[in-house]
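Hi there,

I know you've been waiting on this one. I reran it after we fixed the sequence typo, so this is the corrected version. Both the input and the resulting structure follow.
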Amino acid sequence: MVFSDWLNYFQNKFEIKNVELAHFSGLHPSTISRYRRGVKSPLTDRNHLNRIVAGIIQVATENNKLSDLRNFVNDQLKVKLVTSSSGSACCDQLSELYLLPGDYSILHHDLLRLAQLSLGEDPDLMHDYLPDFDQKIDCFMQLFSVSNARLANILNLDHSLISRWRSGIRTLKKDNPTLETLVAYIADTLTKAQKTDLPNAQQHFIQCIISDASLTVEQNILNWLQSSQQDFQIVRKNVENILEMINAWPGNKPQAVQLDHGYLQLLSDKKKQENYRGIKGLREAVIRFFTDIILSEEKRTLQLFSNQEMQWMAEDQRFLQTWQICMQTIINQGHQIEIIHNLGRSLEELTLGIEKWLPLHMNKNVTAYTCDRINLSEKNQNPLVKTLFIDVGNAAINAEMVKGTEDQSDYHYYTSSNRLKELGEQFEQLKQMSEPIMVFYPENTVFSTEILKESQIINQDQEENALTNELILLFPALPLCFFPQDIVKEILAATGLSSSTIKKIIEENKKLVRMLEDYIETGKTTVIGPFTDQLKTNPVVLLPDTNDTLEVELSEEQYRAGMESLYSYQENYPNFQIRPLVKVPFNNLHIISLNHKTIFLLKTKTPHLLIKFQHEISVICFNRYLESFI
């Protein structure tokens, strides 16, 4: 029995419609249809396979047939189950991220085993194929501008097969002779690229792939292609945590802090000196540095950079707590902070670093940067370490040393104006080499206007470079811009807003519609959200000239009209995709990706926020998260 037969058998036996399974699995009905017709197979798509299994269980639960399903699966297992430990382990790995609450997890595990058996007689069949091959080959081709036709020519294959590789419809076996040619081509491409001045994203890719210096380039690439992409899952989870923190952000409220006055006094009473020795001395210098700022009656500007290992701070828990309290006190007092982070060289380290520092970054008087040149040099085992903390115009801590000698080095404490000027210039040079991790728009800017403005700039750049536009939207409700204009007017008329306000909203909505249609007509657009007939959501209206919003209540007819309008785009434009979700991941956050270059996060409920990410590696991470829904 092939997978299409297995799926048809289960859907027919338990009277599961395509639209029901699509709704509860989070897949599009057309995807379910392709699986049932055998046009598409989830042989290597672990995500889809688990979603389908979970969807069958949910539909059975809704239709009060869970007990029947459980009994049927148990009977099938008695007949068909291959009880090898390797088969069980494979299924354990597959279902790890998709277990359902309670005893559903056992049923999910067993049904998944049956589904896998339908893919071939060997339960380990999936291990014969390159895992996550579609993501890997697509990532390589995008970063190094390799077209389908170019790769097809190199591999002596039809270009349509390359397209199917990238979409996940087809994949590559580990023993396919084509693999050797593909590895050689990727190795040649990366080797040549290393001799040029590469963008940061390409540098990160190469360093992640060629990670073992004891192996050849080809061996590193083969290991990468044959390994499971656990880093994708880690990055996705880190990004999800970042988004959840922003979604639930309560605003910048001064936090009550309690300084350890005894410890602070102990370190402050130390003799003021120009040089502090070792890690213990660095802690004393930092407390002196912070104390002077906290006791100051004037507003100060702090400039902070260090690529030292963080043990100097974390190993002494009392000092770490004092550091955190001092920083919070300084923020509460309204001092300005510029901080250049060394966030690590891999995507996992970068997203983990953003997540870790996000509570600090969310303060409007903190500007955070990261320097990719320094991040990347860490991979090459840069032996030099620098710490530079400046209280502009007042004091500075500075040290430069060889890595590993931090506890034997001197940390200099400067107060002379000439030396402060020199160190300030050094920090400015570091800042010139860095990029803001994120940009917070001031509360007095109109967020919708800023998004439109940025979109126009990016689109112009795309046109000048003959690049295809791409827009990805993840919304918690159906946006007003997808409704027909007559329905928009009808919806707004029932809000009680003044006629002048309604007129402005309609004009702003038309601008958003034009932006949307520009992307639809000239490139690729994907809309992700709870866009199903079973899950009615109410749109959020952006009020004109402010960042305030209004949630409007829709009638069934209005919602249906919006859904029909949305799906008409998919019918009329082949490059327009809808990815319906069963559950909204963030009920307070609109996520917009413009041409893989800019990510906007719009928090619609008070306190309102508009955050822009343009740091190249950060944008890649956010796009990977969005593409996981696609």
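Quick highlight: DSSP finds 26 helices and 17 strands in the chain.

Best,
R. S.
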